[in-house]
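Pasting as-is:
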Amino acid sequence: MKKLLLSATVAMAASLGLTAAAEAAWPEKPIKLVVPFKAGGTSDQTGRVFQAAIKENNLLSQPITIVNVGGHYSIGSRQVMEAPADGYNFLLIHIALMGGEGSGALNFGWRDFEPVAASGEFCLFPMVRKDSGINSVEELLAASKSKPDSLIFGANLGAINHLAGVMLQEVNPGSKFRFVQIGGGTANYTALTGAQTNATVLSGAEVIKFTRMPDGSENPEAQIKPLAYTGPARFPQLNHLPTMKELGYNMEFCIKSWWFAPKGTPKEAVDGFAAAMEKATQTDRYKKFLSSKGFANVFLKGDALQKDLSDTWTAIEPVAILAKKK
């Protein structure tokens, strides 16, 4: 009997040991990170700087593979939501996930995922073509009021640029853009450059990429221009441009990058990925990235992340509902 008890005890200990070893071994295979936008935009740049920082500093034992999914952001988001919750599938998105839910563009939302982390924070620039004859936000809003629905505003319906466009027109009662589905930052840059649209918004990182030279000077070949900034203070690399509040408009719109996993993803994978990301935020590569793009160095996980998501939903749901009506 004693031998049986001893054998059972040894077997249980071995089983527990194997379980602990399996958990401690995460990750055991490459990690897939879906960015539900085309390559080149702000989310893509954010994902790739984390990918590089984690690899260069050996913060994970397995590589991160980034998969860009074009089209509407719901496509890539749904892929992750429906992916196996095995600890090897992650999503990098932003407030579009809430905008899509609130506007009805999505039939799922942030609560259908496992929150992992929030990183960085960026704000936006209303953009027009250089040859548009529009040289200020005041002129843009006046044009959209004098001829409602005549100015085509490039957007990813329910996403950042759509929500920002709705907020922009609402600061001037009577203004009304005609929102059309274009996509993310890269797609909207292309559409605006090609005169398929009249206006949009781009992040600071995108404005620098698409309108500035490597030394920071203006790219003379760029056909688009920013008018103002939706951040709380002027954008460092373009500090000649005023904030919306400086212009007298009650508008501030800034976005964090959110990282999610499929619902039910093991805690060791969620915590492990978040821990590697947090360490990556301390690297020189990541800090230089933030500085070059004008991002605020924000990192949230755990309870702080849950509170931020809840607070953001409370603030953005009314805007998203309004976007649905536009």
